[in-house]
Amino acid sequence: MRIDSTVYVPAVSRQAAYLDWLQMLTGICLVLFMYLHALFVASIIFGTRAFNALAHFFEHYYLAQVGGPIIFLIFLTHFILAARKIPFSSEQQKKLWFQSKMLAHRDTWLWVVQIVSAMIILIMGAIHMWVVLTDMPFSADKSAARIQSGFWLTFYLILLPMVELHVGIGWYRLGVKWGFIKSQARKKAKRFEFYLTGFFILLGLVTLIRFLFVKI
Q: What are phi and psi of 131, to 5 degrees?
């Protein structure tokens, strides 16, 4: 009896490739935005005048009024595109957990962290953007009042590491997937990602602490 050992692999459609490219582009936009956003908010470290001056600049040239909704749209588009590969069902999640433990591969665990952080960011990030964009113009006093309320401090202490982990892992995995980070460069890239993520988490914590001492 002859056994046909031919393996049929489903063809990858052009549409899937285009969607992957769009996911990459939206991801890059969000990475750049989040790093710039962190630096902008950190201007409070130099005082309320520095923060308010930057806020006035963004609003005067309509960068906040136009850019905010655009970033929100990119945010939603990126999630919808990424959701194609996120295991939502309990069965898929069990398989992912089992395979991650079996492989014991760091890059696989990074993907798991990215999935978990993405679900948290989807909810908390949307809340943050809605609150900020519906309470314009920006000002140091408004931000300080929100953070000093107590609830929002806890909120941002959760959101901050989730965002920085997701962003850091995101650009690293994009570089590996699309060949920008070669096999021999992965170790250095991981180390750079670790230090960069740590820097922005620390910067975010210092920023939050500084807002606590702003007199309202």
A: -65, -45
**b/e for 111-138, b at 16 or more Cβ within 10 A?**
ebebbebbebbeebbeebeeeeeeeeeb
| 153 and 208 Cβ atoms separated by less than 8 Å | yes
Q: What six digits make up the tokens of 166?
A: 């997701």
Q: Are 121 and 166 in contact (CB under 8 A)?
A: yes
Task: Please give the model's pTM, rounded to 2 decimal places.
Answer: 0.82
**Cβ pair 205, 160 in contact under 8 A:** yes
| CATH code of the domain made up of 14-212 | 1.20.1300.10
Per-residue pLDDT reduced to its tens digit, 123-172: 999 999 999 888 888 899 999 999 998 789 999 999 999 999 999 988 88
Give Cα 116 distance to the centre of its chain.
11
d(CA 177, CA 24): 10
Which string of DSSP letters, residue by residue, matches 104-144? --HHHHHHHHHHHHHHHHHHHHHHHHHHHHTSPSP-HHHHH
